[in-house]
Structures are given as C-alpha cells and as structure tokens.
Amino acid sequence: MSDQEGKKGLGRGFWLILAVVILVVMAGTAVGVYFFLGPRAEALEREVPTYQIPLETFTVNLKDSNYRRFLRAEITVETTEKKVIREMTDKLYKVKDTINSVLASKTAQDLEDRQRLKEQLIAAINSHLTEGEIVGLYFEQFIIQ
User: Fold this and answer.
1) Would you state the pLDDT for residue 75?
2) pLDDT in tens, 69-103
3) Domain shared by 124 and 92, yes or no
4) What are phi and psi of 55, to 5 degrees?
C-alpha cells in the first residue's frame, strides 16, 4: 500500500510542477509580446503625419420651421495625405457648397448629435475627393442662435 501512495504523490507533484512551468512560459510569452510588439504598433500609429485644412466660418439658416435660427460653425478638416490639400484647394467651392447644404438641411435638434454630423460632413466632403480622403473634422466654433 505504501508503494501506491508514493507513486500517487509523485504523479501529483509532477503535474503541479508541469502546470507551474506552463504558466510561467505563458506569462513570459505575454510579457515578450507586449514589450516587443506593443511599442512598434504604437510607433507606427504615431508616425503617420496629419495635415489640417482650416475652412472659413459657415453661417447658415437652420431648417427649423417654428423658429428663425441659424448656425455659425468654424470647421477644420484633417487628412493624412498631402495631395488632398491641393485637391481640397482646387475643389474648395464644391466643398463649401456641400458643407452649406448639409448644415442648412439640419434642425437645431439634429445638431445635438455632433458626432453624427461630423460623420455626415466627412462623407459628403469625401464624395468630391479622388486623391485621398478626409479622416477628421473639427468644430472650432459651433454656435446655434
């Protein structure tokens, strides 16, 4: 009986040591992946230059039927491609008209969701661009009266 207890104890010890070794290897792998791959991915994200294109202040009447309201918005757009700056300059009249049309089609309530408005404006501007795209849009001024 004592031989069986000795073998049983040795078996448990072996599996316990094996489990600890596996956990240490997994932890080491996780630390290695974090330190060797993590900073590279962050560095790649940081290396992409962005270019800002300030647009003029837009003043439009809103579509509110009950009130006479207007919006004044100063907009800056952002791109990661230098050639978009030239294309935006060449098509500035179209871009401004599109922005005016989108803003004038909104009610004051529509403008409460600014993130959605930004997405709509980016999509509308990008519909005119062929050499790249706008990746960000910022309101430097946003006043509803």
Assistant:
1) 96
2) 999 999 999 999 999 999 999 999 999 999 999 99
3) yes
4) -105, 165
Give every CB contact of residue 133 below 8 A, 6+ residues apart in sequence. Answer: 79, 81, 84, 126
> 90: number of CA atoms within 13 Å, CB side?
9
- Domain limits at 21? 1-47
Q: What distance separates the 2 farthest-apart alpha carbons in the chain?
A: 97
* 44-64 CB burial, b ≥16 within 10 A, e <16: eeeeeeebebebeebebebee
Q: How many domains in the chain?
A: 2
Q: The sheet that has 51-61: what strands, in order across it? A: 51-61, 70-79, 134-144
Q: Encode pLDDT of 13-43 as tens digits.
A: 888 888 888 999 888 888 888 877 766 656 6
- Element containing residue 101 per DSSP (H, E): helix 92-104
* Claim to verify: residue 43 and residue 70 sit in the same structural domain: no
- 100-120 pLDDT, tens digit per residue, is 999 999 998 999 999 999 999
Please tell me whether residues 31 and 57 are part of one structural domain: no
Q: Is residue 43 domain-shared with residue 57, that is, in the same domain? A: no
Angle subtended at Cα 92 by Cα 79 and Cα 99, rounded to the nearest 5 degrees: 80
